[in-house]
Amino acid sequence: MTRRTEILARWTRWTGNAAVFICFSLGVVLLLLWLAGKFEPKVPEKRALAASLRDTRGEAVPVRSLRLPRVESAVGSIRAVHETSIGSKLLSRVVEVNVKAGQPVTSAEVLIRLDDTDLTAKLRQASAALAAAEAARGQAAADEKRYAQLAKDRVVSQQEYEKMVTAVKSAEAEVRRAEETINELKATLDWATIRSPMNGIVIDKKVDVGDMVTPGQTLVTLFDPKRMQLVASVRESLAHRLAVGQQIGVFVEGLAKQCSGTVSEIVPQAESASRAFEVKVTGPCPTGIYTGMFGRILIPLDEEQVLVVPAEAVRNVGQLELVEVIESGQVTRRAIRTGRTIDDRREVLSGLREGEQVVVPTNSRPAREVNHG
């Protein structure tokens, strides 16, 4: 009897706990449904659609298919076709600097002057040596003329006359040596004045007044802004699509400008690390182009077919791209995925088919009722 009573009491306790758990769970579910608005009256679907149609104003535009040339880009840098570094040929001190970075210069314009005091002194010495050599030559010529007459009268021997002839030749050689020494010093003296070899723009100057320069040291770098090129690395799978003389598109990132250029060179050797070829494209450049700027060449590939819609028809809601599509005379909102912007149109990657009608809202087109036809 006691055993039966214990079993009954345990069963009663379990039943009570289960009833409490079920009631608690049911209460939680009802609370969640109430918070979700399940017990609130809903607007009828037909009334909502009718309101949507009344509020929708715009123009129906079909989804179109276009065939566009497909391009692949290759990155590169802007460089000058003609860029030069001007160096020193002397061991001397800088006494004058007339340029700064970005300054335009003309051909033969003086850029830098070096100290030429010792060279000027040597030139004066050489000029004095030339004068002495010319005097000695004059004396030797006079002696040779006098000895010729004496040898003819047999007053002096033929051997003495030949010595005078040799003295004249030696004097003439000394004059020529002195003249060449002067020419050498004048050429060396010209090295002390650094001039521009072309019309261009200064990239940078490497020295200032008072600096000591050595032979071979770079003093100034220049470039010709009228002849620029884009040097790009093109992978080997695309290099065969290019040829010297081919017209190709060029896009300069810093200026956001696209222009046309001509392939001037294709280096016939691939880089071992990247397996890419160096391609040089030249052409008329827009203003504001400088060496070192970033750019891309646009390599044409085969044509591709793309779907496009007016850019105004696409609405961005958070991370979603939505359009209003006319289906069976009704306007529905549909999520799509877009790609590039092509003029005033957007490329459609998914979500629409060719020929479907989308609505361009009144904020971008003249306001009028949706034309379903």
* Largest beta sheet: strand ordering: 2-11-14-13-12-15
Number of strands: 20
Write out the CATH superfamily name of the largest domain: Efflux pump adaptor protein, beta barrel domain
CATH class of the largest domain: Mainly Beta
Please outline the major beta sheet: 6 strands, antiparallel, barrel
Helix proportion = 25-40%
Figure out the total of helices. 5
CATH architectural arrangement of the largest domain: Beta Barrel
Q: What share of the residues does DSSP label as strand, in percent?
A: 35-45%
Radius of gyration: 46 Å
**Could you say what the CATH topology of the largest domain is called?**
Elongation Factor Tu (Ef-tu), domain 3
Helix and strand composition category: alpha+beta
Q: Keywords for this structure?
A:
single chain, 373 residues, alpha+beta, conserved putative lor/sdh protein from methanococcus maripaludis s2 fold, Elongation Factor Tu (Ef-tu), domain 3, OB fold (Dihydrolipoamide Acetyltransferase, E2P), four-stranded antiparallel beta sheet, 20 strands, 32% helix, disordered C terminus
Layout of SSEs?
Elements: H1 2-35, H2 45-55, E1 58-62, E2 64-80, E3 83-87, E4 92-97, E5 104-105, E6 110-114, H3 117-152, H4 158-190, E7 193-195, E8 200-205, E9 212-213, E10 218-223, E11 228-235, H5 236-239, E12 247-252, E13 257-266, E14 276-282, E15 294-310, E16 315-317, E17 320-327, E18 330-342, E19 345-350, E20 357-361
Antiparallel strand pairs: 1-20, 2-11, 2-15, 3-10, 4-6, 4-9, 5-8, 6-7, 8-10, 11-14, 12-13, 12-15, 13-14, 15-19, 16-17, 17-18, 17-20, 18-19
Helix pairs in contact: 3-4
